Amino acid sequence: MIEAADLTAVRLTIELAGLVTILLLLIGTPIAWWLARTPSRWKGPIGAVVSLPLVLPPAVLGFYLLVLMGPNGPLGALTQSLGLGLLPFTFPGLVVASVIYSMPFVVQPLQNAFEAIGERPLEAAATLRASPLDTFFTVVIPLAKPGFLTAAILGFAHTVGEFGVVLMIGGNIPGKTQVVSMAIYNHVEAMEYGNAHLLSGILLVFSFVVLLSLYTLNRSGKQS
Prior knowledge:
globular; MetI-like fold; mainly alpha; about 80% helix
């Protein structure tokens, strides 16, 4: 049976992943659109920065985020000047770190979806005197719907499975920053393998459902 502390960790994980996914879609969509459309020479460097969490060890990313958010870091100085305090070891700090860490898992599917649309639908909308904003919401988003679904699923799933960045920024505080991955770590460390098996099994089933959803989505997209 799942303990109360583990249920709290599950709830906190879902809240974190849900909020991060929404923020990633809001932030990542314009970034992906710009990367898909711009001829700028800055496309490569900016794309590399966005994709950096794919290859950067989570502990390294977490360390630098901890420095940036700390009392001597620029982001920490900003949040303190705004009266928000420091972000490390808080839920908002986890949200900021998770958005950065999961960014490429949302931006890349969206960028691929935008690039696959091509120029013809946009030109057709322009001949009908649709504004760029109207074209984006009435043409681009419907055509890129599979990309948005893939991005949302990957962003949510990747946030659920975080460990290194969560450990560095969150500090594993029960009821505050302790998510499922940290709860599993605690159970293993305490040799409570039954509880660790239960939570790990939940994540295993969740991961399978995510992969099955992506497979089904990609298959239906190819058939259509």
